[in-house]
């Protein structure tokens, strides 16, 4: 049983790359507000229950508190810290970033998936699904959305990899990547203002909204960066994890082969069940408050164990079982409230489309190594697997 006063080292070590650490269920049961020490030596409180995590990410008393040393957007996003500016930015983006528009991207995403699988099949099994499909597909989609030339895709992938750094790259390398992308996006935005295309960025920089005006140059540049960082690495890693989770138990894959209509609910269950979502959301408490019976003083750093919340027995029936038919499925993987992930419609379309194409093209797909040999990626803000070896 966890000790309320004991300081635990965080993050915890899971038994395998796909399984949750045992500490989560223990803490949910007996110590939902736990004292932890991060790898950077910072002490904080860790929340593991669904209701507490949801409150933390929606309550305005908890403000963003990015881990020290992670300057993913080059210091150009100060306006994001201001609620009013942030909500105005989200309103402007949401005019164009609609579920309908994202759904219209599905044929293009399917075409990219088929092309990447064609190349993978040409090389023959075994293959690593991460670099063959998971990593390139989302950046190609983001580049299409932003109207970025195909020949610049590899540069975008390089920048994205460095932005989500915790320990994997040096500070100078991360900062240099930030400067390079900022300069690229500034020139790209200027070009779109002069000669708009039919891409999302052209629409964002030219359309004027009666209430909110239009994006300033700095906001437009930041938007390009944010879409790359949030829309690439996270989905790239999720594609590999989705395949690994579904192939880890053959009956899951067979269930989808027998009934492809389950693909949407299967994607939601993968998003809920994933125990490897990354480092966790940081928040700073701005006023004295109470969480699960524990008084928390202003100035305290609070962390959320999102994947633990997604397995809370108080909300989900048989949460440790992967149920591809689960409905409803109110997981918190995309957050909640005004700061929920703006790109969740795109992420869902990408995951559903990729899964449908994989089931169609490679029905005999299987992991090429035992689940126990899969390894987590280290040193990045978002969770992922180092390799996803497969054969067919």
Automatic annotation (TrEMBL):
Highest taxon of source: Bacteria
GO terms for biological process, alphabetical: antibiotic biosynthetic process
Classification via InterPro entries: Cyt_P450, Cyt_P450_B, Cyt_P450_CS, Cyt_P450_sf
Pfam families assigned to the protein according to its UniProt record, in alphabetical order: p450 (PF00067)
GO function term, MF aspect, one: oxidoreductase activity, acting on paired donors, with incorporation or reduction of molecular oxygen
Record's keyword terms, sorted: Heme, Iron, Metal-binding, Monooxygenase, Oxidoreductase
Family the entry assigns: Belongs to the cytochrome P450 family.
Name of protein: Cytochrome P450
């Amino acid at each position: 049983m966890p000790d309320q006063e004991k300081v635990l080292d965080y993050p915890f070590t899971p038994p395998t790359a796909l399984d949750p650490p045992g500490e989560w269920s223990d803490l949910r049961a007996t110590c939902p507000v736990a004292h932890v020490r991060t790898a950077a030596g910072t002490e904080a409180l860790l929340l593991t229950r669904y209701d507490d995590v949801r409150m933390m990410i929606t309550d305005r008393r908890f403000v963003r508190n990015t881990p020290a040393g992670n300057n993913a957007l080059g210091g150009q996003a100060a306006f994001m810290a201001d609620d009013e500016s942030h909500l105005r930015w989200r309103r402007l983006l949401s005019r164009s970033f609609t579920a309908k528009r994202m759904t219209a991207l599905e044929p293009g995403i399917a075409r990219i998936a088929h092309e990447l699988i064609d190349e993978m099949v040409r090389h023959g099994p075994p293959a690593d699904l991460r670099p063959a499909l998971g990593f390139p597909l989302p950046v190609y989609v983001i580049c299409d959305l932003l109207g970025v030339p195909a020949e610049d895709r590899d540069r975008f992938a390089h920048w994205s990899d460095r932005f989500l750094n915790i320990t994997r790259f040096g500070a100078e390398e991360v900062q240099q990547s930030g400067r390079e992308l900022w300069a690229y996006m500034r020139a790209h935005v200027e070009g779109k203002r002069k000669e708009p295309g039919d891409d999302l960025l052209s629409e964002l920089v030219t359309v004027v909204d009666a209430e909110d005006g239009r994006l300033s140059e700095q906001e437009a540049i930041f938007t390009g960066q944010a879409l790359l960082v949030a829309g690439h690495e996270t989905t790239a890693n999720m594609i590999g994890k989705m395949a690994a989770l579904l192939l880890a138990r053959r009956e899951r894959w067979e269930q989808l082969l027998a009934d492809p209509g389950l693909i949407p609910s299967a994607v939601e269950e993968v998003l809920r069940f994933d125990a490897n979502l990354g480092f966790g959301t940081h928040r700073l408490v701005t006023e004295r408050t109470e969480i699960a019976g524990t008084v928390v003083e202003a100035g305290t750093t609070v962390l959320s164990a999102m994947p633990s919340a997604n397995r809370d027995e108080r909300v989900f029936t048989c949460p440790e079982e992967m149920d591809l038919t689960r409905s409803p499925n109110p997981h918190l993987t995309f957050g909640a409230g005004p700061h929920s992930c703006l790109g969740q419609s795109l992420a869902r379309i990408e995951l559903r489309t990729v899964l449908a194409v994989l089931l169609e093209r490679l029905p005999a797909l299987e992991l090429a190594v035992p689940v126990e040999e899969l390894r987590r990626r280290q040193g990045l803000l978002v969770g992922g697997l180092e390799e996803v070896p497969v054969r067919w």
